[in-house]
């Protein structure tokens, strides 16, 4: 990340993007003649780059537009706003559970990402809240997967971000999830799932591998219905896809999970069949005012269609 703030303001609640020019090539000479050549080589859609250069949409660290005709300069930043592609609106409300000077706590719906990534930008919790609440410094204190619903905490300004991040990173937060998944009457509950989880870059799935355990989850049964159960899951750690992977590995895959045990083909979201996983309750001591904060999600978990109620 650049050490200096963006010279461009947010647009639609979205921070400006940047690229940094590299140093000289192996022979010590510049790899491009002009900044235009660099941008055309670095960014897709050459005609769009030319149009945006002409419109002054690429700027330097001081906010001065690059014309493109400048001699190539190594180790400088080029700032710009990425064009936004159309997005399908997430058809569920983003409920606000609490708002203080330092925090915004929401009840995130299924199918809504926490922060912009890939095809999901404006239809994310962060961007929606920044715009709706006029809080440009809003940032997540932690994250939930796009497919996981439930309690999600944001900080309102940079000055308090570190204090709350420390609470989550040091695991001084009590988290309880609820899920619906397969039930195996041969297993004894409550049970603890312990193992080592690693996720390789470029892989959609995380994996359980040999080695020192780094992931632990307490699994309790709340209710059983025709081969399925509603579970209370208490993670002691916070590895990527921990609950989904460990439950699948135990033979208890969660209903509606497109990744575990097998990756489904990339298809449009089926809003009628969400991942049955909710971050149900979150508790912690506020590091700034000492208040005991306790939040509960109201998101419903439905049984699969083949369960007769």
Short characterization:
The protein has 5 helices and 13 strands. It has 309 residues and is α+β, with helices and mostly antiparallel strands.
What does this structure look like?
The chain has 309 residues and is of the alpha+beta class. The protein folds into 2 domains: 64 residues; 202 residues, Pseudouridine synthase, CATH 3.30.2350. Helices cover 15% and strands 27% of the residues. The strands form 2 sheets. Strands 3, 4, 5, 6, 7, 8, 9, 10, 11, 12 and 13 form an 11-stranded mixed β-sheet that branches. A hairpin with an 8-residue loop joins β5 and β6. α1 crosses α2. It is elongated. The relative contact order is 0.13.
The ordered string of helix (H) and strand (E) elements is: EHHEEEHEEHEEEEEHEE
Strand content: 25-35%
**Uncertain residue ranges:** none
Helical amount among residues, as a percent range?
10-25%
Total tally of structural domains:
2
Distance between the termini: 52 Å
Task: Please identify, by name, the CATH architecture of the largest domain.
Answer: 2-Layer Sandwich
Radius of gyration, in Å, reads 23 Å
> Could you give me the name of the CATH homologous superfamily of the largest domain?
Pseudouridine synthase
CATH topology name of the largest domain, in short, is Pseudouridine synthase
Topology, number of strands? 13
Q: What does the largest sheet look like?
A: 11 strands, mixed
CATH class wording of the largest domain: Alpha Beta
Q: Output the number of helix runs.
A: 5
Q: Shape, please?
A: elongated
Please identify the structural class as seen in this structure: alpha+beta
Question: Averaged pLDDT, please?
Answer: 94
């Amino acid at each position: 990340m650049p050490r200096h703030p963006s010279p461009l303001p947010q647009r639609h609640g979205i921070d400006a993007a940047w690229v940094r020019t590299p140093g000289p090539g192996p022979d010590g000479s510049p790899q491009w003649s002009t900044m235009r050549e660099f941008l055309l080589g670095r960014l897709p859609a050459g005609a769009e780059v030319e149009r945006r250069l002409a419109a002054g949409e690429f700027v330097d660290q001081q906010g001065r537009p690059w014309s493109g005709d400048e001699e190539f300069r190594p180790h400088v930043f080029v700032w710009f706003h990425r064009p936004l592609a159309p997005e399908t609106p997430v058809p569920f409300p983003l409920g606000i559970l609490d708002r203080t000077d330092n925090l915004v706590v929401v009840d995130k719906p299924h199918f809504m990402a926490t922060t912009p990534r890939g095809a999901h930008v404006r239809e994310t919790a962060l961007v929606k809240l920044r715009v709706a609440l006029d809080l440009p410094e809003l940032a997540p204190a932690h994250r939930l997967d796009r497919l996981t619903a439930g309690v999600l905490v944001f900080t309102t300004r940079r000055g308090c971000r570190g204090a709350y991040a420390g609470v989550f990173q040091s695991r001084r937060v009590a988290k309880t999830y609820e899920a619906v998944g397969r039930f195996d009457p041969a297993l004894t509950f409550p049970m603890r799932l312990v193992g080592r989880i690693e996720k390789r870059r470029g892989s959609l799935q995380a994996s359980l591998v040999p080695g020192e355990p780094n992931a632990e989850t307490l699994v309790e049964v709340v209710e059983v219905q025709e081969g399925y159960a509603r579970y209370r899951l208490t993670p002691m750690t916070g590895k990527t896809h921990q609950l989904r992977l460990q439950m699948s590995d135990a033979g208890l895959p969660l209903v509606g999970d497109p990744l575990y045990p097998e990756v489904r083909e990339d298809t449009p979201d089926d809003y009628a069949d969400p991942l049955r996983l909710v971050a149900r309750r979150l508790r912690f001591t506020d590091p700034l005012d000492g208040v005991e904060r306790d939040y509960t999600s109201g998101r419903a978990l439905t049984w699969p269609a083949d369960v007769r109620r």
